[in-house]
């Protein structure tokens, strides 16, 4: 165990971590204790008690383990938090006005960040363990780790009113990863909240997903709806989704602190050109092999073709483009009830009421799935 009582060794280890983090492509590194913050645990418990986690059952199932790093690994004494800037070169809000194009969240335009970061974290952790003699464990998002509160405690930034981490140097565009270690390292000072009276992130949310500053109701969040939610998109949110087909960057992109990220730092992650402005018409043509091929190595692949096409059909319905009618008709016969139901809604938005009603009566009568029949029937009522 590395003890803070040996300041010389601790200082050398810290310098080593800083150098290795930069070499591995991280933009910032900071340290906090592994004890956890009781207030964070209380806020998480309230979040779950209110049902704001939606269908993300793994959050409710791991509340106890999320309370502190020691709950996950009792031997942990320090947490090394590392951050990587993924700020975009363009304004991700601009595409929202071009309804024939699909808006993909900035983080998903690259290779899956879990893979990018985890490999680099492991390299740093192995070198640190060899040098310090301490045990280490590496985590990137998939484990029950409260990464944003830990990053704030370590001083990498603060949790803004949109609940995401905000940095004075990188704005709202940071990937996070953590190394738990049995070494006792000198912690960094936490960062203060610099949101002030600004509420830009709250006001821009298309679905009013923030019940109050610093609170999120995931059930209303477009990122949750397009990625985590497995069923049909609730009707009340479909128009508000616009052309957002995977995630939502609105609350991140509008943050005033982003100007420092764009002016002072160059992102090390290059977005795929074909994911910056993909056409809705092209995406609707994807079958399962095509979907898997296009999104190989991408986090988008995790949600599967049917959920993805569901999202794209909502965007099609919001596009106002009659040129999409034919492909939506074909998708109304898709093997997936999830896709057929979304196609029904899209067609109700793209066709005139008379044409749609005639189609909907016939489709509703012969579809074997009650939820799909319900989509046709509800859309007929709305078109009347």
Keywords:
single chain; 384 residues; alpha+beta; four-stranded antiparallel sheet; 19 helices; 46% helix; elongated
What does the model show?
With 384 residues, the chain is α+β, with helices and mostly antiparallel strands. It is built from 19 helices and eight strands. The protein has helices spanning 7-23, 38-49, 57-61, 63-66, 69-72, 113-132, 147-154, 200-204, 222-228, 235-241, 250-253, 258-264, 280-284, 288-294, 304-319, 325-331, 337-350, 353-366, 370-383; strands at 28-33, 78-85, 103-104, 136-139, 158-159, 165-166, 174-181, 244-246. Strands 1-2-7-4 form a four-stranded antiparallel β-sheet, sandwiched between helices. Strands 3-8 form a two-stranded parallel ribbon.
Summarize the structure.
This protein is α+β, with helices and mostly antiparallel strands and 384 residues long.
């Amino acid at each position: 165990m590395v003890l803070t009582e040996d300041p010389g060794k601790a200082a050398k280890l810290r310098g080593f971590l800083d150098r290795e983090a930069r070499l591995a492509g991280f933009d910032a590194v900071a340290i906090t204790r592994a004890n956890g913050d009781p207030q964070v645990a209380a806020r998480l418990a309230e979040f779950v008690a209110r049902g704001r986690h939606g269908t993300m059952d793994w959050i409710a199932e791991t509340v106890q383990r999320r309370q502190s790093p020691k709950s996950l690994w009792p031997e942990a004494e320090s947490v090394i938090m590392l951050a990587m800037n993924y700020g975009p070169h363009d304004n991700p809000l601009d595409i929202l006005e071009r309804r024939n194009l699909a808006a993909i969240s900035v983080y998903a335009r690259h290779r899956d960040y879990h893979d990018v970061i985890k490999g680099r974290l492991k390299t740093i952790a192995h070198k640190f363990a060899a040098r310090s003699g301490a045990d280490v464990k590496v985590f990137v998002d998939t484990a029950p780790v409260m990464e944003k509160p830990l990053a704030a405690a370590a001083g990498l930034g603060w949790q803004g009113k949109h609940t995401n981490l905000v940095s004075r140097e990188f704005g709202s565009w940071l990937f996070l990863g953590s190394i738990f270690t049995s070494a006792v390292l000198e912690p960094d000072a936490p960062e203060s909240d610099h949101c002030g009276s600004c509420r830009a992130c709250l006001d821009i949310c298309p679905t009013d997903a923030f019940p109050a500053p610093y609170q999120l109701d995931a059930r209303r969040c477009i990122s949750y709806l397009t990625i985590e939610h497995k069923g049909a998109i609730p009707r009340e949110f479909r128009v508000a989704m616009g052309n957002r087909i995977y995630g939502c960057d609105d609350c991140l992109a509008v943050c005033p602190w982003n100007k420092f990220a764009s002016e002072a730092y160059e992102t090390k992650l290059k977005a795929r050109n074909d994911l910056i402005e993909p056409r809705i018409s092209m995406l609707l043509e994807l079958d399962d092999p095509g979907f898997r091929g296009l999104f190989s190595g991408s986090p988008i692949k995790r949600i599967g073709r049917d959920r993805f096409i569901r999202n794209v059909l909502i965007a099609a319905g919001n596009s106002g483009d009659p040129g999409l009618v034919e492909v939506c008709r074909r998708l109304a016969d898709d093997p997936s009830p999830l896709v057929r139901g979304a196609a029904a809604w899209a067609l109700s938005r793209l066709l005139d009421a008379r044409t749609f009603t005639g189609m909907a009566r016939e489709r509703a009568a012969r579809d074997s799935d009650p939820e799909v029949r319900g989509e046709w029937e509800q859309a007929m009522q709305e078109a009347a």
